[in-house]
Amino acid sequence: MSQRFVREQGTQSVPDYQSRVRRLALIYVGIVVVCVSAIVLIIYQGKLLITLSQRSNVETLTLVFIIVLFAYLALLSLPGFWGALQIALLDAPRWFGKDHDEVERRKQAALGQHEGEPDTVFLNCRLTSDHAPDDPLTFPLDDGSGSLGTIVIDGAKLTRVEATRGGSNSIFAYVEQRLSQLVKQRISDARIEIVQWATISDEEGLQYYAMVQFSENLQRVLKTEPLWPTYAVTDDDVATLRRELVELCPTLRNEALLPDVEYSVEHRLPIIPEPLAFISLSRSESRADPAASMGCALLIAVVILAVVAVIVLFPPWVPAR
Amino acid sequence: MSMKRRIVAITLVALVGLLTAACFGPKPTVVSHELSPPEQPGQPWVMHATVKNRGSGEGQVAVTARLIDPQTGTVVAANETTVTMQGHETTIVAIDLQPPTDGPFDEEVEAEYPT
């Protein structure tokens, strides 16, 4: 559940990924629209809301906090809103019969080059080619309209080299999930999962990868079978994934126009609320997909807007002056 | 969404609506108003406003009457009175006004909640 909805949402198949990117773009637009609407509503109905808060012993400052919260959320989502607009503008010529490749080339031109260290994630196991175990596996992200980089699998390390600006770690999640499905067809109990996301926590990632490299060095010295869990990937698996990644390129270009809001996440559930929180339950995930985190933000914004709207439409009973 | 889940969701929303219905305040509207001149010199003008609570909630409503000079648009007299209204109740409120002249006036009456 947590893998599918929090860590790696919408990365099961190409249509899944396409709908995830569309959903993410709509989420950013939704957040900005909802937040701006809420701020306008609170300001426009200020007299009513302040009177209600004064009469009901609720701090009037709560209204300011809501405005600040919504303004912050809207500001945070503005790059996503702008990205969604860009996607719509760049895709618009296609709706009027323009050539698909030309549209994609224009989109590609809008993307700059990735700066800094290439994005990297680490698997719980090593993946090797079945006929050349020492050679890294490469998966070019190129559909003829321009290259979005290459996914290189070197044992337990997945790297996206020569990448364009933007995009998210979800492409790694897609590669992991599809390879997991393909390997499971031969080895039913195979378990392939991303366990470290270097863009979120590079220290932990490097620490983990050092252990994997240690096992590889030891294996070479001892001249034994792989010490770290290893699965072989066939040429057919590689060909299948390469074909799918070409199909995915237009979606990856859209995703690259959206901001990459990726963090680890912690969910806390206090059994006894603050300030007497003697017991509280918590659960953490190493990565929250932007569709999950921003989706939750949208949900909360909608709920708060709905509550404010209900209060404005049906003012509650308050004591007389 | 399955039918069973839909029924549960609708029931929950209805239950929340029902439980919170008692917490609502009134929704007052001025249905009509009539200005009566003073019966004797020195007495106030009286604005009789019929206020209807269109909601089921109860609470204190402020009814404000204003007399406006049509030539200048200046408010020449204004007064406010509060009345506690029950759900769906209609009440007539009398508001005294002391304009400095004998008119004519434009009349303005509004009912507000919360006060």
What does this structure look like?
- The complex is a heterodimer of chains A (about 325) and B (about 120).
- By secondary structure, chain A is of the alpha+beta class.
- Chain A folds into two domains: about 1-105 and about 290-315, no CATH class; about 115-255, no CATH class.
- Helix content of chain A is about 55%, strand content about 15%.
- Chain A starts with a helix and ends in an 8-residue tail after the last helix.
- In chain B, a hairpin with a 6-residue loop joins strand 3 and strand 4 (about 75-85).
- Chain B has one helix spanning about 5-20; strands at about 30-35, 45-55, 60-70, 75-85, 90-95, 105-110.
- In chain B, the strands form two sheets. Chain B has a three-stranded antiparallel sheet with strand order 1-2-5, with no helix packed on it.
- Classes of the chains: A alpha+beta (about 325), B alpha+beta (about 120).
- The interface between A and B is medium-sized, with 11 and 15 residues.
